[in-house]
Amino acid sequence: YTISDTLTLTAGLTVQGAGTGTPNVVTTSPTAPIFNVQTPFPCTFRDLWLDAAVPRQKGGVGIILGLPGAMNGFSRLVNVTVVGQYVGVLSQNAFGWVIRDSYLVNTVTDAVQIRNQVSADTGDNLINGCVFNSRLPGSCAIRWLSGGGLRVTDCKILGHDYAPVVQQTNDGTTSDFLI
Description:
Layout lengths: L1 E2 L3 E3 L4 E3 L8 E3 L7 E3 L6 E9 L8 E5 L6 E2 L2 E8 L3 E6 L1 E2 L2 E3 L2 E3 L4 E6 L9 E4 L2 E3 L6 E5 L4 E5 L2 E3 L3 E5 L9 E3 L1
C-alpha cells in the first residue's frame, strides 16, 4: 500500500503484514508518521515492512506509540522492518511495549526514541533480537530520554554513529537500563 498521510489507530488492533520480504506500507510524505497509536489499549504490528518513497524529514516517524496526554500500554512489534524513516519507532508515553525480532534500517536520527512525558517513571519496555543498521551520519540506534525501565537483549547494532544514548531527564525517580 502506498500512503501519503498518517494511519491512526484509536482502538487495540493487530496490523498484520504479508511477511514476504517486500514493503507492505510505503509513504510518499516526507513528514507524516506512518502509524500513530492513539489508544491506551495494546496494538500489535506483525510481519510488516514500512518504507519511504521520499527522503524523510522531522516528523517522519515509522510508528508512534502513545497519546499526547495519556499512556499506551503493552503494544508489540514482532518481525517488523522499518526502513528510511526520520525516527523508526517513537515511544511517546507508552509502557510495557516489546520490539522483537525486528530490523530498523537507515533511520535519519534515531531508530528507537523513548520519552514518557506523562509519567517519566513509567516504562518496563523490552527490545529483543533486533538489528539496527544505519549508514547515515549522526544516526543513533536507541535514544532513551525518559522512561522507568528498558531492557535491551540479543541485539546487533551496525554502522550507527551512536549505539544506546541515555539522556535521562530528572523527572522520574527510577530508570533501570539493562543490557
